[in-house]
Write a structure and sequence with these properties.
By secondary structure, this protein is mainly alpha-helical. It has helices spanning 4-12, 19-23, 26-57, 61-89, 92-109, 116-144, 150-162, 165-181, 187-191, 195-213, 231-247, 249-279, 283-309, 313-332, 337-365, 368-400, 417-446, 477-490, 505-515, 524-548, 559-569, 574-584, 600-607, 620-636, 651-674; strands spanning 405-408, 411-414, 465-471, 495-499, 552-556, 592-597, 641-645.
């Protein structure tokens, strides 16, 4: 079934978002390269630190390695909430740069640590610093990419995080080989065999700092305040974040679902090698095969899951989790390697799809003010769940033992500890799916229900063309509409000009209400519905008949104005405003939208020269949000919206560009008709 969002996108003439479009965005491309190279370095560093721990510990290497793993989890458990408060209050770009710079220095000096305790301390510090970087990245993503590209962005982000793992292993092996061949000529490397790998890792952090320094990010909503980092303020921020998660049904249910799913993954990681060795009889090589198949599945799920879910990501998340639980149940029942490996691919696909869509849902629905704390809470709880799973499931498997089973209908069912542990992991994933589904149902009953599905009636019959002019206050829309109309009439076209709100007796009365400064403060939802009401009357009474009669309709503002002003600047949300207006207009969208770009300060000064209406009296912060919203719409929908930068141009120059764009649209329409 087609979702409302998809139907609206079809009506607007938008094409599906692609990875190529995403990577053309300079900001995201820099963040992606930063994470890709940084993840490669992190995995190289992970291997190098493991070897370093074993070298320093001697015969107790296994215990030292276990201690390093435990220490890596502790900072998230202890300080995750504080990291979230920092991300929401301070400049995220600077936090990420500082994190990368500190980690680069630490990895550069790691080869020279004198003992295990020094290694433990630096490992702890690495994770503390990294704790800030991850939620800062996740919270910044919606500021770098259009909303419809969040799924693709998270797919590439997760791929950049886990994809370099096999490459890092090969690089580490090469660097270790180089160190061994140079022992004779460079004795220093014999003393510090991890040196090359750790220094390569340090260089990757330097590259990350360079990429981030060229990244443009808006400051968090709270940075306009004068802040002093005190314990009281941090505790207050944490308290607010906890209250938000508790009160936000969607955020809390999605977070719980992701955390439980991660905990179940911990069960697989903890008992998987034993299961493969004892139950499947495949040994260490078999575990490597299973790891590889799960990894391939994860990559496939992360890429395909984001594109397949589209507008129903929350439901997709729940369904993928439920299917993953069923797959894990069946996988645990296997007794040979081949079917287990095949099921591992399916399990990886479902887990990858659920994770990427879960992250996108949180990014789309959590306000920017709380996004850092939300993702920090997700990080903390996920790490805690993973830590508990890595500890509890092996203990459970050991308690149950290996030689247990029951007879059922002449069949002996193996109930070994590892199999029971995996089944329990599957039950946890199923529980996560149920909890999330219940939360989503509650969320849907507490949020405004869409007025109706977008009607099938879209365009009236006729050869008319519908062109809308958009822009901030004072952008010159009215002037350019009249000039364009005169030029088109001179060329022999039948042209009708209309304005919003207005154009009908009802619309003009609503215009007086909406723009009259004496109206006073107006609730954003009321404002959005009044604009939609005026628009509905204009479309039905004027625009549709004109298109049917073959006229060119030039409209001063249309649906994109409501999206920019009420949807984004007022905070009502693009989806709800689009649904309302698609319903009100019976799915009529322009053939072309011309966005006249102008700096909001210059435009507002021009608009206020002859007096200011209620909208024009809004503060500069509001109008800056409107300008930013128009910019996002232009980036999101370049195929239907043409931007004309009017900065520094006189009216004649702007008119030339406007007429050129209209003539091009008329030619394209004529070519489509001939085809």
């Amino acid at each position: 079934m087609t979702s409302t969002v998809e139907e609206i996108a079809a009506l607007r003439g938008t094409r599906p978002a692609t990875y190529q479009d995403l990577l053309r965005l300079r900001g995201f491309r820099r963040l992606f390269l930063d994470q890709l190279v940084g993840s490669l370095g992190n995995w190289i560093g992970f291997a190098a630190v493991s070897v370093l721990a074993i070298r320093l510990a001697g015969s107790a290497g296994a215990y030292a390695l276990a201690a390093v793993m435990a220490i890596r989890l502790l900072p998230g458990i202890l300080f995750g909430a504080i990291a979230g408060a920092l991300v929401d209050r301070f400049d995220r770009k600077r936090l990420m740069m500082a994190s990368d710079a500190v980690n680069g220095v630490i990895y550069a000096i790691l080869p020279f640590v004198p003992n295990l305790w020094s290694l433990y301390a630096l490992t702890f510090l690495i994770e503390c610093v990294q704790l800030v970087w991850a939620p800062a990245r996740d919270a910044s993503m919606p500021n770098l990419v259009p909303e419809r590209q969040l799924g693709n962005a998270n797919s590439l982000s997760l791929i950049s995080a886990y994809g370099p793992l096999p490459i890092a292993g090969a690089v580490f092996a090469i660097l270790a080989g180089i160190s061994s061949t140079l022992e004779g000529s460079v004795p220093f490397l014999a003393r510090y065999p991890e040196l090359l790998a750790l220094w390569v890792d340090a260089l990757t952090f330097g590259f990350s700092v360079l990429m981030l320094s060229r990244l443009e990010l808006p400051p968090p909503p709270t940075t306009h305040e004068k802040v002093r980092l005190g314990l009281t303020r941090v505790v207050d921020d944490i308290r607010v974040g906890v209250r938000f998660l508790r009160e936000s049904t969607l955020a809390s249910s999605m977070t719980i679902g992701i955390v439980i799913a991660f905990s179940a993954v911990g069960a697989v990681l903890a008992v998987g090698p034993i299961f493969v060795r004892d139950t499947l009889g495949a040994g260490a090589a078999g575990w490597g095969i299973v790891q590889t198949t799960v990894g391939l599945g994860l990559a496939t799920g992360m890429v395909g899951g984001a594109r397949g879910a589209r507008g129903d990501r929350d439901r997709y998340f729940v369904l993928a989790l439920g299917a993953a639980a069923g797959t894990l149940f069946v996988l645990a029942a296997m007794s040979s390697l081949a079917p287990a490996a095949a099921l591992s691919i399916v399990l990886g696909i479902l887990c990858g799809a659920s994770w990427v869509n879960g992250y996108v849902v949180l990014q789309e629905h959590v306000e920017d003010e709380f996004r850092g704390r939300t993702f920090a809470a997700l990080t903390v709880l996920s790490r805690l769940g993973l830590f508990l799973s890595l500890t509890a499931f092996p203990i459970l498997a050991g308690i149950v033992g290996a030689d247990h089973g029951i007879e059922l209908l002449g069949w002996r069912i193996d109930l070994s500890g590892t199999r029971v542990a995996l089944w329990l992991g599957g039950a946890m994933v199923l529980g996560a799916s149920a909890i999330t589904w219940r939360g989503l149902l509650r969320h849907r009953t507490t949020r405004p229900i869409a007025l109706a599905l977008v009607p099938r009636m879209k365009r009236p019959r006729g050869d008319g063309v519908f062109i809308a002019f958009e822009g901030i206050e004072g952008a010159g829309k009215g002037t350019q509409i009249e000039r364009a109309a005169a030029a088109l009439r001179a060329a022999g076209h039948d042209v009708l000009t209309v304005r919003e709100p207005g154009g009908t007796p009802l619309g003009e009365r609503l215009r007086d209400i909406l723009l009259d400064g004496g109206t006073g403060s107006m609730q954003p939802r009321a404002e959005a519905m009044l604009f939609a009401a005026a628009r509905a009357q204009l479309v039905a009474q004027v625009i549709r008949p004109a298109i049917a009669a073959g006229k060119i309709v030039l409209c001063d503002r249309y649906i994109d104005s409501s999206v920019a002003y009420q949807g984004m600047a007022r905070g009502l949300g693009e989806e709800d405003v689009l649904t309302l207006n698609a319903w009100a207009t019976q799915g009529l969208f322009p053939d072309l939208v011309l966005l006249l770009h102008l700096d909001p300060e210059a435009g507002l000064a021009r608009a206020r020269a002859d007096g200011a209406d209620r909208i024009e009296r809004e503060g500069m912060e509001f109008h800056a949000k409107v300008a930013e919203a128009y910019g996002k719409i232009a980036v999101d929908h370049p195929e239907r919206l043409s931007t004309i930068d009017t900065t520094g141009l006189d009216e004649d120059a702007v008119q030339a560009r406007v007429v050129e764009a209209i003539e091009r649209a008329l030619r394209d329409r004529a070519d489509d008709g001939d085809a």
